[in-house]
């Protein structure tokens, strides 16, 4: 996974500042190049007398775009590129721009309506999380109010399989680039009071998951030291609460194995992790 070119989707709202704060953190620690983009809606075309309204609409869009980039420059400074891109869908516009500009990762903030410190998936994220060919990184709501001084650790949500093995390799390479440790966690979700036969199956599942974690960590031992943890709970949120999270933590999830190749595709478990996480979450595209 390359981190040379970071693309931040920005709008003049708190969620835009959240995503930009995370993009700046990643840019500084990875010594990457930052591009800040505002995706504006297209100007509609109208015949006859309505052309006057069309002209006013175009002028309004231009004014809004320039004001948005001015605000972004005040936050991110001169050491970045700033782009206005026109598209009907903000998420699809960022996908298109990442392809044209060679973006290695797209960063945005949480949708409105979500809880503070959590991530809500809105239309922009939904478009990115079902079509982007590069990793998508989501910042929790309020992340820009008091961002951490640095990224502290990468945590991979691990479950044995080709997609997760590739995710671990990418995460290990990124951890080396960022100069931070790597952790692998496997979530074991079960009922509150499992029956005896369920408890026996659960014990075997724990043993197998622990063995898989150790094997995956051993595969990366030549690059860096890898921590492993088995997290249990009655649901994904409770399992994530079973461990501690550093201020500069980031979770990495692989795309669903049923999604299209070389595209991000959010599966059910990854979506639950996104919604329950209190730190930024990165979704990787599915590789062959």
Describe this structure in words.
The longest helix is centred in the N-terminal third of the chain and has 26 residues, at 51-76. 40% of the residues lie in helices and 20% in strands. The radius of gyration is 21 Å and the shape is elongated. The model has no long low-confidence stretch (mean pLDDT 89). A ten-stranded mixed beta sheet has the order 3-2-1-4-5-10-9-6-7-8, with helices on both faces. It has 288 residues and is α/β, with parallel strands linked by helices.
Topology:
Layout: E1 5-9, H1 14-30, E2 33-40, H2 51-76, E3 81-86, H3 90-101, E4 105-109, H4 123-128, E5 136-139, E6 153-157, H5 162-178, E7 182-189, H6 196-219, E8 226-233, H7 236-240, E9 249-253, H8 268-276, E10 281-283
Parallel strand pairs: 1-2, 1-4, 2-3, 4-5, 6-7, 6-9, 7-8, 9-10
Antiparallel strand pairs: 5-10
